[in-house]
Here is the input.
Amino acid sequence: MADPGKTENATPKKKEDAKKKGQVVRSIEINAVLNVLVSLVVLKISGDYIMHNLKELSAYYWGNVTLFKGNMDENLVMPFFIKLLVKFIMIMLPLLASVFIVGILSNVAQFGFLISFESLKPSFDKINPGKGFKRIFFSKRLIFELIKAIFKIVIIIYIAYSTVKKILNEIFLTPLMDINTYFGFSADTIYRLGMKIVVAFIVFSILDYLYQRYEFDDSLKMSKQEVKDEMKQMEGDPLVKSRIRQIQREFSRKRMISEIPRADVVITNPTHVAVALRYDEGKDEAPKVVAKGINLMAEKIKDIAREHNVVIVENPPLARTLIKLDVGWSITQDLFQAVAEILAFVYQAKGKIRLDEKGKKVDNTILNDKYIPYPEIGGRS
Here is the structure.
């Protein structure tokens, strides 16, 4: 039974950890009833084959066992009995194989494919007399198992009594039956009795499985503190996560600052916001934000820009729009015109382009004439 303080249902992680340790919901009654059912069906189908071969095996044994009278040589006796054993196994193979396969499939159907050696590890709790005594005499499982055993005995006795009562007259005639008729009658009676028990126990095994699931879920319940500790373990300690975020911000800040000297222009508003843009015509589809900041960070961006002769342009509306973009993002289409004009001015001032009177690029010579707005970047206007 779960600790009274453990009121929370088990988390998926705890269930997964329990499964790795071999702790799963499993009803032995389901395995038993399926094995009995399959055994009855196999015997019904292959009963004649099994009976015929058992008769031949019996005749082979009694026909040869007298040869060893007075001569119990190990070299003769052992091969004979090994041969008998092999023949018997081959005769019973359909029944043995079906029971083996159903045993595996019934377990897989209940809790999936699982191989765990955790339960084989030595543990003091398993041999602790105090805990063992408590499990035996003060557990819900003991009461349930006792009721279950009594219930099964009552069902079997009732079904056996009702079945025998119906065929009582035929039972009294068995001494008059030949061997084949007697075996046929016995097999048919056992089959009918077994099927009635199986039908009753199918319902019983379903109820047993539901109880096993309830008990399993109850045993895995957790306290609120355990749930919090597990969430903290899975998601990370808040202090550790905060430190990681701080390191990431510092790393991002250093990388951003290293990009400022290579920027084409820094756009400000002019005191509170600064955004650095860079455009590589042969590589970028549109200008990108390589650094941005407000207040103290904005002042630092402008200081670095001045140190490396990066042009600073005051354009408050554009700066307030660009600050909303993340570092590394390209500008949106609605900003192409405004940014293009600024970059054209910057390129012209640095002598990167020469413009004619219509604002079109002429050649790469330095232009000393009056600035003319250049509205095109990479073929877009």
The longest helix spans residues 179-219.
